[in-house]
Amino acid sequence: MYLPLDGRGPLHGQLVRSLKEAVLAGRLPAGMRFPPTRLLAQQLGVSRNTVLAAYEQLRAEGFMQARVGSGSYVALPGAPVQPRSEPPTRIAAQSAYARRLRRYHDHANIPGRRAPGTLHSFQYGVPFTNPLLTSAWARALSHAAAYQPPNYPPAQGLPALRAAVCEYLSLRRGVQAAPEDVVICTGTQQAISLTARVLLDEGDEVAIEEPQYFAVREALQIHGARLLPVPVDGEGLRTDLLPERPPRLICVTPSHQFPTGALMSLPRRRALLDYANRHECWIFEDDYDGEFRYDAQPHAALAGLDDGRRVIYTGTFSKVLFPSLRLGYIVAPPGLRDDFISAKWCDDFGSPGIEQAALAHFLADGGFERHLRRTAKTLKQRRDVLLESLRRLTGDAVQIDDSHAGMHLVVWLRGRDAAQGAAFIAFAQARGLGLYSIAPYYFEPPDRAGLLFGYGALSVVEIEEAARMFAHCLEAMAFAE
After folding, report:
1. End-to-end CA separation in angstroms for the chain
2. Cis peptide upstream of residue 83 (ω within 30 degrees of 0)
3. Pairing state of beta strands 205-210 and 249-252?
4. pLDDT in tens, 448-463
5. Which segments of 253-380 are extended strands (E)?
6. Is position 95 within any domain?
7. Is 409 contained in some domain?
8. DSSP label at residue 437
9. Which residues form the HTH gntR-type domain (predicted)?
């Protein structure tokens, strides 16, 4: 405990004044236990009798209450601790990187955060929670903690996890990767950050889907890239609209375009790979939830077709397990592998070893596959209930873009422009329903009212109730007009 003594008078008096000031200022709140006398005497370098005398005076003045067999506690509520106020003027950004941070990212207004005060929320990005996963993961962590060495893990990732990732990708995504080409990272966001550092200089051009995932867009902008939006349609990225002058990097979500849900067709995939090979540019493939397809056979990942080794393939366990895990992977082209490992080392020395070991065991013993099967079945049921409820309750009032995959779908309000869509979101929120605009995922949003419906975290009953609330809000707003 830090207790400054003022040097005036006897030591026990100095200690009394210091402790009283700490109580009155709120640094020692009511009910907090004072340190044992021996410990405090040792910390302050004074005799125990000095501390005993100070404690006795504090009890006499009502600042301290002794509890038999328990210790001494603060008896008076002090003034609440005042948080440090922001300086009156903001300090100028100290680097070009900091200037780009301020320009492109607003941490207080991240798209898709849960609207306050809502009863039900179609928030995207909240995972499906499975109680069986919680207990299985606890067992895997316990086993890993007992056997994983406490030293730093390899920056590239544990060999066991890299090997398990390769086996999983071969089975599920059609990607043939060698463990030495896999770099374990904290997820898609670190993957794009490392990719930018390895491949891009400030001012380099990057082609990106329009619309796109805002966090990848912002990461590239903050790094200093010049972004070239390329439109997306029902077959994915419009490869015929790629720029004549080739960009350094092309960022795509071919297995489940975010946010539209489009699946990139095989001809487009081949055209994209041909473009990258001819122009010697790189492709960043974000396969963020390619595991979940419901009405069609899953396509192999783009990296599975890549003979020229131009694809940097990345996946994450945040969507299929839980976001707080913070583990994902990069499959790097062999010629860039050492650069990615060095960039990862420079960033954080490597991802947590115990969690890596637990995940490797979870993948190897079949627990992950069992979880995927259960999750896919549950998500399909929730998606089917949402689609049926919206179609039954809203009729022609909405247009539903069903992606047949993932954990969200896009809904457009027919005949409503973007401003009316924003007003409708506020109208629904005031009635306890959280809705989220698709506009933040565009460079230039269309003048239409589009909504992103996430359903992964809602039960079937909650989806039905939320859909009814949505329909009632549509009716009420139409009546009000």
Report:
1. 64
2. no
3. parallel
4. 999 999 998 899 999 9
5. 282-286, 311-316, 328-331
6. no
7. yes
8. B
9. 9-77
User: Which helix (H) or strand (E) segment is 454 a member of?
Assistant: strand 449-454
Q: What's this model's pTM, rounded to 2 decimal places? A: 0.84
Q: Which of 291, 287, 327, 314 is nearest to 144 (CA)?
A: 327
Residues spanned by the domain of 209: 132-365
Q: Nearest to residue 272, comparing CAs of 293, 258, 288, 251?
A: 251
Q: Which phi and psi angles does 437 have, rounded to 5°?
A: -75, 150
**pLDDT tens-digit profile of 315-331?**
999 888 888 889 999 99
CATH number of domain containing 448: 3.90.1150.10
Does residue 189 share a domain with residue 295? yes
pLDDT digits (tens, 9 = 90+) for 380-437: 999 999 999 999 999 899 999 977 788 899 999 999 999 999 999 999 999 999 999 9
* Cα distance between residue 207 and residue 189, in whole Å: 17
248 CB-side CA count, 13 A: 17
Helix segments in 259-366, DSSP class H: 266-279, 337-348, 353-364
Whether 32 contacts 73, CB under 8 Å: yes
Q: How many domains does the chain have?
A: 3
Q: Are 181 and 187 in contact (CB under 8 A)?
A: no
Residue 194 CA, chain-centre distance (Å), reads: 16
Q: Is 6 left (phi over 0), alpha (psi -120 to 50) or beta?
A: alpha
Residue 389 is which amino acid?
A: S
What type of residue is 90? R
